[in-house]
Amino acid sequence: MKDKATGSCLCGAVKFEIGLPTKWCSHCHCSLCRRAHGAGFVTWVGVYAERFSITAGESELRRYRSSSEAIRSFCGSCGSTLLFESQKWPGEVHVALANIDTPIDRDPEGQAHPEDRVSWIPDWEITPKHQIH
What we know:
Layout: E1 4-8, E2 15-19, E3 24-28, H1 31-37, E4 42-48, E5 52-56, E6 61-65, E7 70-75, E8 81-86, E9 92-96, E10 110-112, H2 123-126
Parallel strand pairs: 3-10
Antiparallel strand pairs: 1-2, 2-5, 3-4, 4-9, 6-7, 7-8, 8-9
C-alpha cells in the first residue's frame, strides 16, 4: 500500500494529496450533502487535517458556509464539491471519495444519517461491504 493518495476536481485546477492511513470512509445521506453534490448520497473520506494538502489550484478553491458549524469547499472553475470541514470534527478534513484518483486504504464502512436516505435508492445499493463494529 502506498503512503498517500491524490485527487483533483473535474477540470483538474484543484489538486490535493492525502497521507494514509485515513480515519474512516462512509456514505452520508443528509439533505445538505445530497444538494451540494446533486446525488442521492455522498461518500466521504475522513482524514487528519495535517495529512491533507492542496498541491495545486489553492486560488481556485471556493468556500461556502453551509451551516453555522460547517464549511464546504469546491472548485471555482468547474464547481466540483471537494471538501467538508466542521467544528464538530476539529482536526479533520472530509474529502469526497469520488474526487480521489488513486486507491485509499479502505472501502466505505458505514452510513451517516441513514434516516434521511431518499426512497429512490434501494438499501442494497448503499450497503457497505464492511459494517462498523
